[in-house]
TrEMBL record:
Stated family: Belongs to the ABC transporter superfamily.
GO molecular function, one term: ATP hydrolysis activity
Boundaries of every ABC transporter domain copy: 15-264
Keywords, comma-separated and alphabetical: ATP-binding, Cell membrane, Membrane, Nucleotide-binding, Transport
PANTHER family reported for this sequence: D,D-DIPEPTIDE TRANSPORT ATP-BINDING PROTEIN DDPF-RELATED, TRANSPORT ATP-BINDING PROTEIN
Cited Pfam families: ABC_tran, oligo_HPY
Protein name: ABC transporter ATP-binding protein
Entry-linked CDD domains: ABC_NikE_OppD_transporters (cd03257)
Length: 332
């Protein structure tokens, strides 16, 4: 699926590398080279206005790093990120400040993302105090409105975070993220710390807010059952790279990449299509020393010599994009 003429988010060959070397003096003494972790390594995708793109994959594959790149918490090592047609890296400080009102983030752990010493009203009003000229009375009124919007009582703004359940705390986090009227929310595993029954309530709230407010989501998760419920399109990541991007229905009905098939083989069949399980052995390689060629080849039952030497290009297969020599050669 090619990007539309004006996607809200356009990521082009973005990478984020981290220097994880031991201290300089120790490197000199012990003659150790620099060590670079390629957490995200040449990723390209787009997100249309009003849709939800989900990123899935095993822990450590780079999902959260992409979330922080889009939220502006990290800068890309190379490549570009565009927000509504503007390249973020080339924005002026004033333009970037204005962009932050349109882009907010919901973090994974509502126990850690809320200041335990602040009352809820102050937590939700913090973006208003920072980015607007609202009076204290106007802020309180807006906080009342936001609490009601996420299904909480306006009187809750006088309580502390520890007085709420996990699901209620995540609703508070969502209210804070909505305070400035953003268009785009980066959701980094927003329900993984919650009980299953509470997850469903929060996910339904997020879908209702998306419908009512016209929000666009990047939804990070390792839970394919959750992703099936919320996503319009899904990107599958492995060792810092996107190996497949497809619509939700196409990905669950006809997964192309062997890694995608492995992930789907680990969950109950949600489509009723009687999909066979595809067991793949092995563990994720050390990201500090990834395999040459296709990084998935040590675990792939279809790998050949080309897979071990040459990194696959991302090609289109209808509305699906995938990076796999086996698909390109018609072996899969």
């Amino acid at each position: 699926m090619n990007p539309p003429e004006h996607p809200l988010i356009l990521v082009n060959d973005a990478a984020r590398w981290f220097d994880v070397s031991i201290p300089w003096l120790d490197r000199v003494i012990h003659r150790k080279p620099r060590v670079t972790l390629r957490a995200v390594d040449g990723v390209s995708f787009h997100i249309n206005k009003g849709e939800t793109l989900a990123l899935v994959g095993e822990s450590g594959c780079g999902k959260s790093t992409i979330a922080r790149l889009l939220a502006g918490l990290y800068q890309p090592s190379h490549g570009s990120i565009e927000f509504d047609g503007q390249t973020v890296q080339s924005m002026s400080r004033k333009a970037r400040h204005a962009m932050r009102k349109r882009l907010q983030m919901i973090f994974q752990d509502p126990y850690a993302s809320l200041n335990p010493r602040w009352r809820v009203g102050r937590i939700i009003a913090e973006p208003l105090a920072t980015h607007t000229r609202m009076t204290a009375a106007q802020q309180r009124s807006k906080v009342d409105e936001l609490l009601a919007q996420v299904g909480l009582d306006p009187n809750d703004q006088n309580r502390y975070p520890h007085q709420f359940s996990g699901g209620q705390r995540q609703r508070i986090s969502i209210a804070r993220a909505l305070a400035l009227g953003p268009e785009f929310l980066v959701c980094d595993e927003p329900t993984s710390a919650l009980d299953v029954s509470v997850q469903a309530q929060v996910l339904n709230l997020m879908k209702d807010l998306q419908r009512d407010l016209g929000l666009t989501y990047l939804f990070i998760s390792h839970n394919l059952a959750v992703v099936h419920h919320v996503a319009d399109r899904i990107g599958v990541m492995y060792l810092g790279r996107l190996v497949e991007v497809a619509t939700r229905d196409d990905l669950f009905a006809n997964p192309r990449h062997p890694y995608t098939r492995m992930l789907l083989g680990a969950i109950p069949d949600l489509t009723g299509a009687g999909r066979a399980r595809v067991p793949v052995g092995g563990e994720v390689p050390n990201p500090l020393n990834p395999p040459t060629g296709c990084t998935f080849h040590p675990r792939c039952p279809h790998a050949n010599d080309r897979c071990r030497i040459e990194a696959p290009a991302t090609l289109s297969y209808g509305d699906t994009k995938a990076a796999c020599h086996g698909l390109e050669e018609g072996r899969i």
